[in-house]
Structure formats: C-alpha cells, structure tokens
Amino acid sequence: MSPVFGVTGWKNAGKTTLTERLVAEFVRRGWRVATVKHAHHAADIDKPDTDSFRHRAAGATEVALVTGPRYAIMREQEEATLAEVLARLAPADLVLVEGFKQESHPKIEVRSDDTQPMDVATHNIVAIASDSRPSGLPSFARDDIAGIADFIAARIGRA
C-alpha cells in the first residue's frame, strides 16, 4: 500500500490550499501523488441528462465514466471508509488525505490564529502549519511548502 499522510484542520483553515501546494511540490520532485478529499456536504460529479447519470438513475450501483486521459468510477453505497478508498487507488509514492480527521494516519494540522487547536492525540497530529508557529510539535509557516514536504518525506521514509 502507498504511504499515507494527512492534512487536517478546522473549516476554512487552508487545508485545500496546502494540499494543492504539496501535490505540486512532490510532483516537481518527480513523485507520483494521489489525493483523497473528504467532503461533509453532498457532491455529485455527474450531471442530470448525461448518459452516466441515466445509468445510475436506472439503478446501476457502479458506473465508470471514461473520457480520453481520465476516468471516474461512481459507486452508490453508504459513505466509504478511507481504507476502502485507499484500496482502490493505483500505487503512488504518496497519498495525501484531506479530511478524515478521526483516522489514524499521521497528519499535519493547518491552524488559523482564530481557531482552537485540534486534539493532537485524538487526531494523530504530528506537525503544525500555522502563521503563528506554535511550539510543542514540529511547526512550519503555512508557506514553507518545501520544509513541509521534506518533513513528510522523512516521516514516510523517503528523505
């Protein structure tokens, strides 16, 4: 299984921005990176009046939409666990997971100055990305993408 590292934090803390910048940094280094994003709101990548939407509406439990250089598989089920999603991903040098706070993989917390810190032990937080640079755990400025990437690489044994 590919190594997994998480980006977590409270709503609007900057998780997506950090994840996006880390993906770009690791790709620049020649890594193959996959991501998993957990959303708390209903989202549908499929649109009404498309053939794949009609397949699902007719009762297909899984529909693969294949277009040129990419494909998506839509599955109808109860919310998938992180383990289920990870098992379906192709091998990668790193899987960055945004969200899934309660899962046990190591995470960096993106912290705003105006929010309460997350519980380090409960959420398996191993580092902090914040403008205020809190102490206690390894801490990085939010824009220290190379430093955060080096930390993650070391953590997964690829330093």
Give an overview in words:
- This protein is α/β, with parallel strands linked by helices and 159 residues long.
- The chain has one domain (4-43, 79-155): P-loop containing nucleotide triphosphate hydrolases (Rossmann fold).
- It has helices at residues 15-28, 51-57, 82-88, 120-123, 145-155, and strands at 4-8, 33-37, 62-67, 70-75, 94-98, 107-111, 125-130, 139-140.
- The strands form two sheets. A six-stranded parallel beta sheet has the order 2-5-1-6-7-8, with helices on both faces. It has a two-stranded antiparallel sheet with strand order 3-4.
- Strand 3 (62-67) and strand 4 form a beta hairpin.
- The chain is globular.
- The mean pLDDT is 90.
Walk me through the topology:
Blueprint: E1 4-8, H1 15-28, E2 33-37, H2 51-57, E3 62-67, E4 70-75, H3 82-88, E5 94-98, E6 107-111, H4 120-123, E7 125-130, E8 139-140, H5 145-155
Parallel strand pairs: 1-5, 1-6, 2-5, 6-7, 7-8
Antiparallel strand pairs: 3-4
Helix pairs in contact: 1-5
